[in-house]
Amino acid sequence: MTVGIEYYVLLSMLLFCIGLFGILTRRNALMFLMSVELMVNAANINLIAFAFYHGNLTGQVLALFVMALAAAEVAIGLGIILVLYRNFRDVDVTVPTTMRW
Amino acid sequence: MAVVELPEWAALAPVLILAGTALALFVFDSINPRSTNRTVLAGTAAIGSLVALGVAVWFTVAGVGASGLEGFGAIELFDGQLVVDQMALYFMIIVAVVTALVSVASYDYMEGHTYQAEYYSLVMLAATGMATMAAANSLVTILIALELASLPSYALVAILKDNRGSIEAGLKYFLIGALSSAIFVYGISLVYGATGYLQLDAIATQLETGAADGEFAYGGLLGLGILMLIGGFAFKTASVPFHFWAPEAYEGAPAPIAAFLSSASKAAGFVIAFRVFTTAFPLDATSALIGVDWTLAFVILAIVTMTVGNFAAATQQNVKRMLAYSSIGHAGYALIGLAGLGAGSELVMGAAMMHLLVYGFMNTGAFLFVALAEHWGVGRTFEDYNGLGQRAPVACFALVIFMFSLAGIPPLGGFWSKYFLFTGAIEAGLLVVAAALIVNSALSLYYYSRLVKAVWFEEPPAARDSLGQPTGLYAAIVFAAVMTVVLLPGFGPVVETALDAAAAMIA
Amino acid sequence: MEGVFDFAPAIAVFPLVAFVIALAFGKHLPKKGAIPGILATGGSLLLSALMLVAVSSGEVYHETLYEWAAGDATSATGVEGIAFTFGILIDPLAALMLVIVSLVAFLVHVFSLGYMNAEGETGLPRYYAGLGLFTFSMLAFVYADNLLMAFMFFELVGLCSFLLIGFWFRTKSAPSAAKKAFLVTRFGDYFFLIGVVAIAATFGTLQFAGDESFVAAAQTAIDDGGTLFGFDAQTWVTITGLLVLGGVLGKSAQFPLHTWLPDAMEGPTTVSALIHAATMVAAGVYLVARMFGYYALSPTTLAIIAFVGGFTALFAATMGVVKDDIKQVLAYSTISQYGYMMLGLGVGGYVAGVFHLMNHAFFKALLFLGAGSVIVLMHHEQDMWKMGGLKDKAPVTYYTFLAGALALAGIIPFSGFWSKDEILYDAFIVGLEEPVIMAAYAMGLAAVFFTGFYTFRMVFLTFHGEPRSEAAEDPHPVGWSIKAPLIVLGVLAVVAGAANLAPVYKLTGLELTFLESWLDGEYGAIEGLTYGAYGELLAYETGVVGTEQLTVMIAAGLSLLLAFSGAGVAWKLYNVPEPVVYRDRLGRVGDVIEANYYQDEYQVWLAEGVTLPLARAADRFDQTAIDGAVDGVSTASLFGSDRLKRIQTGIVTNYAALLVTGFIVLLLVLGYAGGWFL
Amino acid sequence: MNDWIAIGALALVGLLIPLGMMAVSYLLRPSVPETSKRATYESGEVPTGGTRIRFNIQYYMVALLFLVFDIETVLLFPWAVVYLDAVESDAVSLFEILAPMVAFVVILLIGLAWAWRNGAVEWAQTTRQVDAEGNRS
């Protein structure tokens, strides 16, 4: 039994929304990062499902690239979070507010 | 015709040169870690970007990628994943120019900084990403190039590791960037799902067939996907509502990096937006499928962006932050180029391209002036700039040129591009947008002239020591000022090139 | 004469060079700039004469020299594109006028040697520079080949008159007179400018001549019977024609814009001569003649021109009767005479109008220069009641002045008679069919009497009788630089009438109507710009009393009779050793006339009583409502800015929330527009 | 009856059983708070600190490096899949199939060399790093 494509999309959208929810509610920078990863992975689900659906590999290859990019992004992100902790003694993203308005 | 028949991939030479420079800097740093030989490092970066610039200009003049009798036609590489045409070269020129200016200016600005080699190699990497964005012709390459431009930018903004402002800026830039790129990737996945292709021309073919057959079932997915793609571009170009990172990132980042991001990065964001929306989503077919004209989104974004940018800039106290908001406002102006595509005229998109080129000079110059002020250590607010004109007349005169050009005062370059945008908007029937352009320009004159007034007409707050004249910064500022002025006589060829490139995209 | 027209630009350029030289080096030149001016106007005169000869040999010149702007707007008549150019048009009319202008300018320059240099005036370089620029502007105006160029030089003429009238800027009255001249003429020029724009927008061309001219275009439009800007084509031509006429009324000092001219007497007398005879005032009438084809298309406009002309002729003549200042009398006579010209043109008497323009140029220049001579004689005394008895002490001045006076009064056979009579004859025959014109004719005829009266009142008071002051008893001698121009002009005033002896032709059949043939293009002309062509356009019916000869006799006899009776009354009253002031006997009428019919008063009242409160109200509106609105906008903007930037809370989570909100709003808007939710 | 309903029911039951058991045990068990119960468990040894200790920064460094290079390896995978086919086919030359991956690996190697030279993979801190650490606080 093949599962209809719409269920994959539904799943990925759910995942995307969970990630979004995490971004909007979590104040910890690491949780923020994880939430972003969830969103990216939601996209990956889509890509792979659609690659299967369309019968071409483009989506799968892109999914690999997206994973690599996400990893690189996390690497940079962790670096920034490290210096953030050193400067602000906290990884709460709402703490640094020296610049506003 | 070229004497030597170059292989096709040589068309990517500007990008390859930038990448090579970045790698060379990494190799240099590997051999000689923590080197602080600023001359070699800044020199390598500057020469690399200048060579890339030279090659790009040469290609443009030689007609690489141009259609018609003289040209070679658009060169497609790797199955159309990358394409080198007039528009790609045009934006490579913008990126290379700004990179060169920033490299030269950083020589003085980054004096005494620990991570010299990393700084320049990151700049070059980001420039490589931006130049690749100019040539990217598939959602895959676009995504990779965009991330290649973004990731070093995050690091560059936060490179002043002991400066809380820089870190905060980097954090905010990164977080919003990560969110936006997640949205962008999701948009790509949806567009892929709706069409089954990632290569732009293939997407367009698919959409047109679908529109013709009437058997296209994924209009909703496509619409949401396109909207999410717009989100990605909006982030890169600092357009509302994805602009929130910009004021802080520009304010906190080292001033040359702010210049780099607000000029080159913005231009690169626009080039992919131009390319994606002209190539992949033909207006008629797409409107038929998703039921709404996507230019409507850009009309809204353009008006809101220029209004938010200019209004928020009006009452800023911090000069750099004012420039940051003005940069958002200018993104709104350039968005008219996409908003006006509905009329099928190349004028409005060509005008946006011209604006981005002129903006590359005047805005970079303005931020570099801020870099100079930070180098002097005079402070950051308008009051701190009071009376600088007496001490540094040359730089302050250049500042006047930048400010008036940004405001769009004739006969400076900024006036002409804005004028073309205005006529383009009128021609496209976007009277509301044209009116918003006028109102916002008028408002922008207020805060730009405020800076001019502070620099030239106000009395300095206290006796000031004589100010240094750092060679690199001065050279970059003066060059940018000269270009801002000279672009007017040279506007003929620029107009022609931009309109040709725009026409090639729309045709 | 091949190629002579290549020098046409030089006609105007010579005085311009003189202007530059006088301005730049005048201080160091021996005669403070007079020599270059004389040479330049002499050169212009020579070249103009050459043009005249060339035109008489059947050639005309019409060239566009320089296109300074072009647009691609489509006019109301469907002409694509419009070009704004400088060009030269030399046809019989322009050639004639060039000679007149350059001749008068030349003589004025020569006269100035005696009038200004010899009298030790300061600021002479400025004076000669002004004269040079004035001459340049007028000459360029005369041979302008399109309406816009004409307008530009028309304005330049106005500017020069301002500079020269206010030459003695340290006095109180001269600057005010200069301002008045400038403002009043400018008031008319506003209408002119609107007219130029209207014509350009309507016909897409501003050329005077050729198939591409607006005259031809207007004729086509009327023939096609379409509507222009919501008006019937003919009505629209009338409207635009009247707008242009506004400029003419101002410059040619026609009622009600004549008030500047008497005040303009504050300038040096030489300047008055130039202004009245050949340049400023002539420019208005010349413009009507230049675009006569256009006015000929609109009977309404012509009737208005004629009526205004006739009215002004009488109106000004009555005011001239009571003036005591010799220059004032001449000033009102100028207004009156230009009224005649307008009357002539308005009744379709194109030749008559131009003829009178020419004759008037000569005798009025003569009279002004003569008056200048008298003023020199009188040690700068201008009140006629303090003169008298100069006849024997300055015979040259007297006889030349007398010739001018006879011409002005219209006494046969002096030049003024022939042209004025022709105007009145043309008006008479048209008036027999058109009541309005008859009224205009009647006023013109009545003015003849007053003209004769005030002219000879002036002559008798000035030259006859006993000297009434010390200065008159012992006049200052005048030099040859003053006498020579007077003699030249005196001869012209006597003989110029021979150019067109129309009554003689009509009575005897002798072909003595040279000017008519000239203007009718018998020697050469541009098609459509001839008397004959205009005649075909005119819609006037003419009538006769009995036979044509009888009509001529009646018209000429009537005007001569009136002229003689006016002169005779003056003879009776003032040709006595001790004339007395009769003004008081006129009672209240005299008061009214003395006060120039309260023209100045009502215009000042218009300015102060109506315009000023209006302006104050507008100013208050501007200060409160407009400025308030502007300030309000700016305050609101800055306030909005202050609020708007508060979105940037500095907290990155809020940014994410706002970003997502913004995205969703965009999604909703697009979705709503695209009907995704239905 | 939809097949999915059975799955849903199964999921529901699967969730309810553990939750129910935890709830019952929470209600039934006695609660005797004691300090030693909260102590960190270190295999019977006396604990030397809390659970919330900071790891050495090098953990992150190495982890990051590993993450990046690990993921890059993934990119080799699709290339390896098509490699043999490409070599056998005449359409693509050996250079064309090999060169891009060589370039890719070279770039990676430059990155690795840079990281190595800049001390990212050194476990012990060099004196300079210690100095830098000291300056930071």
From TrEMBL, chain A:
<comment type="similarity">
    <text>Belongs to the complex I subunit 4L family.</text>
</comment>
<dbReference type="GO" id="GO:0030964">
    <property type="term" value="C:NADH dehydrogenase complex"/>
</dbReference>
<feature type="transmembrane region" description="Helical">
    <location>
        <begin position="36"/>
        <end position="55"/>
    </location>
</feature>
<dbReference type="Pfam" id="PF00420">
    <property type="entry name" value="Oxidored_q2"/>
</dbReference>
<keyword id="KW-0472">Membrane</keyword>
<dbReference type="InterPro" id="IPR039428">
    <property type="entry name" value="NUOK/Mnh_C1-like"/>
</dbReference>
<dbReference type="InterPro" id="IPR001133">
    <property type="entry name" value="NADH_UbQ_OxRdtase_chain4L/K"/>
</dbReference>
<keyword id="KW-0560">Oxidoreductase</keyword>
<protein>
    <submittedName>
        <fullName>NADH-quinone oxidoreductase subunit NuoK</fullName>
        <ecNumber>1.6.5.11</ecNumber>
    </submittedName>
</protein>
<feature type="transmembrane region" description="Helical">
    <location>
        <begin position="6"/>
        <end position="24"/>
    </location>
</feature>
<dbReference type="GO" id="GO:0016651">
    <property type="term" value="F:oxidoreductase activity, acting on NAD(P)H"/>
</dbReference>
<keyword id="KW-1133">Transmembrane helix</keyword>
From TrEMBL, chain B:
<keyword id="KW-0472">Membrane</keyword>
<feature type="transmembrane region" description="Helical">
    <location>
        <begin position="173"/>
        <end position="196"/>
    </location>
</feature>
<feature type="transmembrane region" description="Helical">
    <location>
        <begin position="87"/>
        <end position="107"/>
    </location>
</feature>
<dbReference type="GO" id="GO:0008137">
    <property type="term" value="F:NADH dehydrogenase (ubiquinone) activity"/>
</dbReference>
<keyword id="KW-0812">Transmembrane</keyword>
<feature type="transmembrane region" description="Helical">
    <location>
        <begin position="394"/>
        <end position="413"/>
    </location>
</feature>
<feature type="transmembrane region" description="Helical">
    <location>
        <begin position="322"/>
        <end position="341"/>
    </location>
</feature>
<feature type="transmembrane region" description="Helical">
    <location>
        <begin position="473"/>
        <end position="491"/>
    </location>
</feature>
<dbReference type="InterPro" id="IPR010096">
    <property type="entry name" value="NADH-Q_OxRdtase_suN/2"/>
</dbReference>
<protein>
    <submittedName>
        <fullName>NADH-quinone oxidoreductase subunit N</fullName>
    </submittedName>
</protein>
<feature type="transmembrane region" description="Helical">
    <location>
        <begin position="142"/>
        <end position="161"/>
    </location>
</feature>
<feature type="transmembrane region" description="Helical">
    <location>
        <begin position="6"/>
        <end position="28"/>
    </location>
</feature>
UniProtKB/TrEMBL annotation, chain C:
<dbReference type="Pfam" id="PF00361">
    <property type="entry name" value="Proton_antipo_M"/>
</dbReference>
<dbReference type="InterPro" id="IPR001516">
    <property type="entry name" value="Proton_antipo_N"/>
</dbReference>
<dbReference type="InterPro" id="IPR001750">
    <property type="entry name" value="ND/Mrp_TM"/>
</dbReference>
<feature type="transmembrane region" description="Helical">
    <location>
        <begin position="271"/>
        <end position="289"/>
    </location>
</feature>
<feature type="transmembrane region" description="Helical">
    <location>
        <begin position="329"/>
        <end position="355"/>
    </location>
</feature>
<keyword id="KW-0472">Membrane</keyword>
<feature type="transmembrane region" description="Helical">
    <location>
        <begin position="229"/>
        <end position="250"/>
    </location>
</feature>
<feature type="transmembrane region" description="Helical">
    <location>
        <begin position="93"/>
        <end position="115"/>
    </location>
</feature>
<feature type="domain" description="NADH-Ubiquinone oxidoreductase (complex I) chain 5 N-terminal">
    <location>
        <begin position="80"/>
        <end position="128"/>
    </location>
</feature>
<feature type="transmembrane region" description="Helical">
    <location>
        <begin position="484"/>
        <end position="505"/>
    </location>
</feature>
<feature type="transmembrane region" description="Helical">
    <location>
        <begin position="150"/>
        <end position="169"/>
    </location>
</feature>
<feature type="transmembrane region" description="Helical">
    <location>
        <begin position="301"/>
        <end position="322"/>
    </location>
</feature>
From TrEMBL, chain D:
<dbReference type="GO" id="GO:0030964">
    <property type="term" value="C:NADH dehydrogenase complex"/>
</dbReference>
<dbReference type="InterPro" id="IPR038430">
    <property type="entry name" value="NDAH_ubi_oxred_su3_sf"/>
</dbReference>
<dbReference type="Pfam" id="PF00507">
    <property type="entry name" value="Oxidored_q4"/>
</dbReference>
<comment type="similarity">
    <text>Belongs to the complex I subunit 3 family.</text>
</comment>
<keyword id="KW-0812">Transmembrane</keyword>
<protein>
    <submittedName>
        <fullName>NADH-quinone oxidoreductase subunit A</fullName>
    </submittedName>
</protein>
<keyword id="KW-0472">Membrane</keyword>
<dbReference type="GO" id="GO:0008137">
    <property type="term" value="F:NADH dehydrogenase (ubiquinone) activity"/>
</dbReference>
<feature type="transmembrane region" description="Helical">
    <location>
        <begin position="6"/>
        <end position="28"/>
    </location>
</feature>
<keyword id="KW-0813">Transport</keyword>
<feature type="transmembrane region" description="Helical">
    <location>
        <begin position="59"/>
        <end position="82"/>
    </location>
</feature>
<dbReference type="InterPro" id="IPR000440">
    <property type="entry name" value="NADH_UbQ/plastoQ_OxRdtase_su3"/>
</dbReference>
